[in-house]
Amino acid sequence: MSLLYPSAGLATLDTRARDIFRRVVETYLETGEPVGSHAIQKAGVQLSSASIRNTMQQLTLAGLLASPHTSAGRAPTHAGLRLFVDGLLEVGDIGQEERREIDTRLAGMGHSHGANVEEALETASSLLSGLAGGAGIVASPVREAGVRHVEFVALGSDQALAVLVADDGTVENRLMPLSAGVTPSTLQEASNFLNHRLKGRSLVDARQEMRTEVDTARRDLDEAAARLVEQGLAAWTGAGERDRSLIVRGRGNLLQDARASEDLERVRVLFDDLEQKEQLIGLLDDVGEAQGVRIYIGAETRLFSLSGSAVIAAPYMSGRQRVLGAIGVIGPARLNYARVIPLVDYTARVLGRILDGQET
Questions:
Q1: Which whole-number Å values give the CA distances from 294 to 38, 161, 354, in the listed order?
Q2: Residue 312 belongs to what H/E stretch?
Q3: Are the CB atoms for 332 and 308 separated by under 8 Å?
Q4: Is the model's pTM score more than 0.90?
Q5: pLDDT digits (tens, 9 = 90+) for 286-306
Q6: Are 345 and 314 in contact (CB under 8 A)?
Q7: Whole-number Å distance between alpha carbons of 134 and 223
Q8: 191: which residues sit within 8 A by CB, 6+ positions away?
Q9: Which long-range contacts (CB under 8 A, 24 or more apart) does 313-317 make?
Q10: Residue 92 contacts by C-beta under 8 Å, 6 or more apart in sequence?
Q11: Per-residue confidence (pLDDT) for residue 175, from 0 to 100
């Protein structure tokens, strides 16, 4: 067992408060119900109920606990959950049965010639949803083949076709408006400029450095050719994002723990959130920028602030440690973090190995 991260916020709690806080959170995550002083006593705390209630009140005033209903019990706030996850959560290894199921169902796809990337992603999302509870979510990888050739072809006086041929043989065509007075030499000048600058580079690299490329184009080209360069880069990189798929499996799991009308309302809001494809892909892409598992709780993401949901996600990478995408679990804030974190981490690592093998 090991702590996920150290947390400076814990330094503000004395030993008694820290122990009671940890027990409240652990009991709440196990039962999903507000925790009272008697439950803390039964857990082994050798204090009177009055002393425990006093400490819980102090934790409530500190914003770490709250009383969700009229009962005397307390539940962790999202700030409390964050403090617990960062400083007190003990994360173990994935269980042998779970490891075996992932290896059997997912790793076996790497030996199947009929399996493709989409099937692997769907299987991984379904697996994670079934094992962890909540909804499994995964975004397809960004295609990173290098650029082989770029060309602008006039289709008339006011329209052109921007053609991009990648090293993997795929061809992307985008229709573009043409400004008045654009000549064949202008089209050729823009094509030559991009071929020189982009050949062998991926569109992901081009997108990240697009502003520099366009600034250079405005210095080295006439205004009409520079506009073509800018429009071409925007058309190709933007379309690559729109063409990516987002796979969500296990929405039904989110209804299983809905105990009251307010729970059902949060699930309804979460269902709406899960339809926001571009925002979800953006969230998973942010995960790829971090090392290891990343956790968002409640309002830490604008997308899930109303539903109060939690996201546990990890990047899946190639054998060369290139981030291909990210996979995770979305569910109520009372997810079993200690169990779900290693599940997400292991599934991401197996998925990365499979997709890396299919790319080679």
A1: 34, 41, 22
A2: strand 309-317
A3: yes
A4: no
A5: 888 777 899 999 989 888 877
A6: yes
A7: 52
A8: 150, 151, 152
A9: 313/137, 313/283, 313/284, 313/287, 313/344, 314/287, 314/344, 314/345, 314/347, 314/348, 315/287, 315/288, 315/290, 315/348, 315/352, 316/348, 316/349, 316/351, 316/352, 316/355, 317/348, 317/349, 317/352, 317/356
A10: 1, 338, 342
A11: 86
pLDDT digits (tens, 9 = 90+) for 159-195: 888 888 888 777 778 888 888 778 889 899 989 988 8
- Token reading at 179: 């400004």
Task: Report the alpha-carbon distance of residue 273 to residue 31 in Å, rounded.
Answer: 26
**CA dist., res. 205 & res. 198, Å (int):** 9
Instruction: Annotate 151-181 with DSSP letters as a single string.
Output: EEEE-SSSEEEEEEEETTS-EEEEEEE--TT
Does residue 244 contact residue 140 with C-beta atoms inside 8 Å?
Answer: yes
Residue 54 has pLDDT above 90, yes or no: yes
Query: Structure tokens of 224?
Result: 């009409």
The arithmetic mean of pLDDT across residues 231-257, rounded, is 75
Q: Which two tokens stand for residue 251?
A: 């929405």
* Gap between the Cα atoms of 19 and 23, Å rounded: 6
Per-residue tokens: 193:
């400029």
**Chain centre to alpha carbon of residue 12:** 31
What is the enclosing helix (H) or strand (E) of 269?
A: helix 261-273
DSSP-derived 3-state class of residue 94: coil
Please answer whether residues 287 and 300 qualify as being in contact, where contact means their C-beta atoms are separated by less than 8 angstroms: no
User: What's the start-to-end Cα distance of the chain, in Å?
Assistant: 36
10 Å CB burial of residue 261 (0-12, 13-18, 19+) is exposed
332 by DSSP, 3-state: which?
strand
d(CA 23, CA 76): 11
**Closest listed residue to residue 134, CA positions, set 10, 250, 44, 277:** 250
Residue 343 Cα distances to 99, 191, 286, 327, angstroms: 8, 47, 20, 11
Would you state the structure tokens that stand for residue 146, as one six-digit string? 């290098």
Q: In Å, what is the CA distance from 287 to each residue of 19, 137, 138, 290?
A: 31, 13, 11, 6
Whether 206 has a pLDDT exceeding 90, the answer reads: no
